[in-house]
Amino acid sequence: MDTDTKLVISTLCTSFLTFQFFFHFVSYWFSAKISSGFNSLSLEKKIEWNSRVVSTCHSLVVGILGLYIFFFDEATRADPLWGDSSFVKLNIVTASGYLISDLLILIFYWKVIGDKFFIIHHCAALYAYCFVLKYQVLGYIANFRLLAELSSPFVNQRWFFEALKYPKFSKANVINGILMTVVFFIVRIAVIPPFYGFLYSVYGTEPYIRLGFVIQYSWISTCIVLDVMNVMWMIKISKGCIKVISLIRQEKANNSLQNGKLD
């Protein structure tokens, strides 16, 4: 086993154990400190709460590092298909450790937080990351896909507000809902046309052909699976956002009528 492989495995194990530790210990302590309503939640709610706290931590870590790589990593920017970067490896291994950790939690607490779409999402991502790490290809692409995680903190925050029974029309809830919709659209939906435009532009080139059929197929198929799910989630989020905005407008209209009658 070479040094690079040992480093990947050790980093993967560290990531996995860190996120497990956060779920089982850190989140309980931290959540009780910052939210007085956490202790009053049911056991089932606390399990999902801790899962989402870990999800948010993971999203911030890989999202921020992903942005740095996207803008400043010369190796992957110069050669999106074959550029090799230690930062990309670190980000992908960290994400892989989280995905394995979250898969274990989903399975263990299936009756509470089990979701088949999350299983499909995690397995598809892990499948793609294995090729990136094993063959040291498509680092730029993998990191670009990881930027989608920047939407997760807003999605999780929406759930936290619901768990704490914040009013749907509270300022914090509405602002977070709008930000969630906008950020989700930018990092998961708006990027779809340019992404597949780039795929079309490199299709048939020498670097693309050198990837081989298996990696080509894995790249395209996993991205399609993930994007179909992203579109499904976007539709669901958009419907919820439109519904809330419509209710707010209706409430304002009713208040205007009442004020008119009073005058």
Please describe what this structure looks like.
Helix content is 84%, strand content 0%. The chain is mostly helical and 263 residues long. The longest helix has 50 residues, at 213-262. The chain is globular.
Write the layout of secondary structure elements.
Layout: H1 3-34, H2 43-72, H3 74-78, H4 86-108, H5 110-113, H6 116-135, H7 139-146, H8 152-163, H9 171-189, H10 192-202, H11 206-211, H12 213-262
Bin the strand percentage: under 5%
Structural class call reads mainly alpha
Spans of at least 5 consecutive residues whose pLDDT stays below 50 are none
Rounded average pLDDT: 92
Helix run count: 12
Q: How far apart, in Å, are the first and last alpha carbons?
A: 82 Å
Give the % helix: over 70%
Shape: globular
* Topology pattern, helix = H, strand = E: HHHHHHHHHHHH
